[in-house]
Amino acid sequence: MAEPDYKKDMGAFLSMANYPLVKYTDMTTETRDSAVDICITAVEKFPSDLEKCTQVIKDAMDKKFGFPWHVIVGKYFSYEVTSEARHVLDLMVGGTTGVLLWKL
């Protein structure tokens, strides 16, 4: 049985998705760049332990930008959050891992 076209297309996308995709942010450029670097490092370091990845991102953001940051890392989720102005980031890493980062 042949593989469906959408699975071939998804496989091609995932093989090329080696860069982060910022889906939404209202952060300043400087804050966004630092947050993206922190998120990429954590996701690459702990690809199978999303809980540890989440804790690493939260600790790094709290230390660098002040308390309290909130983080969700996962494969499939939706969200609706309230945040401080200029303190939210929705990011895809590696094509399959979503990272939501916001500050209250």
Automatic annotation (TrEMBL):
It comes from the Eukaryota. It is found in: Cytoplasm, Cytoskeleton, Cilium axoneme. One of its GO terms (biological process) is microtubule-based process. Keywords: Cell projection, Cilium, Cytoplasm, Cytoskeleton, Dynein, Microtubule, Motor protein. Gene3D superfamilies: Protein Inhibitor Of Neuronal Nitric Oxide Synthase. GO terms for cellular component: axoneme; dynein complex; microtubule. Belongs to the dynein light chain family. Force generating protein of respiratory cilia. Produces force towards the minus ends of microtubules. Dynein has ATPase activity. Consists of at least two heavy chains and a number of intermediate and light chains. This is Dynein light chain.
